[in-house]
Amino acid sequence: MKNKLSLLFVLITSVLFAQKKELDHTVYDNWKSLKNARISADGNFICYQIDPHKGDGYLYLYDVQRDKLDSVPRGDQASFSGKGAFLLFHIKPYADTLRQLELKKVDKKKWPKDSLGIYYLAQDSLVKFKDLKEFECSKNSDRVLIKVDHNNLPETGKKKKKKRKEPEYSSEGNV
To answer: Could you give the angle at the alpha carbon of 122 between the alpha carbons of 116 and 128, nearest 5°?
Structure first.
């Protein structure tokens, strides 16, 4: 009887001490969500995005063959190219910067734009293009269409053509 009573006492005290913290509005900011999981066509790379409730998240890229994990801050909307040579993704501006601009009521045309990140998988390198409007990648090849907000490319092929002088003929008829 003493053993049963002591066992009951131990169970009751363990239940009382094992109570978990109440969920209230303060814990929401610590929650993170996993989004946009993708696997490359050859299965050698996996990418996924982990975003907090508020703030900036990370885009993770895992190389299965080398067992290597890499991350890009603020990466979003990732997709592999058609043949799997590279990973394309948006790089969002800092959340704090956008929040400050929103509080100051700055016109949205003056807000910083997303950038495009291209991660070359074979070379393990990252290239960025700023002021991205949108991008689209071919399903069957590694061709990419990129639309940006500005054009910083040098102008070529737009030379002014010189007008040719027409030969003057006299009415007397030169032969």
So the answer is: 15
Amino acid present at 138? S
The answer to whether 93 touches 75, Cβ cutoff 8 Å, is: no
First to last CA, the chain: 137
Cβ atoms 68, 98 nearer than 8 A: no
pLDDT in tens, 93-107: 898 888 888 898 888
DSSP code of residue 109: G
φ, ψ at 32 (rounded to 5°): -125, 150
Return d(Cα 139, Cα 108) in angstroms, integer.
33
pLDDT at 175: 46
- Taking the C-alpha atoms of residue 171 and residue 8, their distance in angstroms, rounded to an integer, is 127
25: three-class secondary structure by DSSP: coil
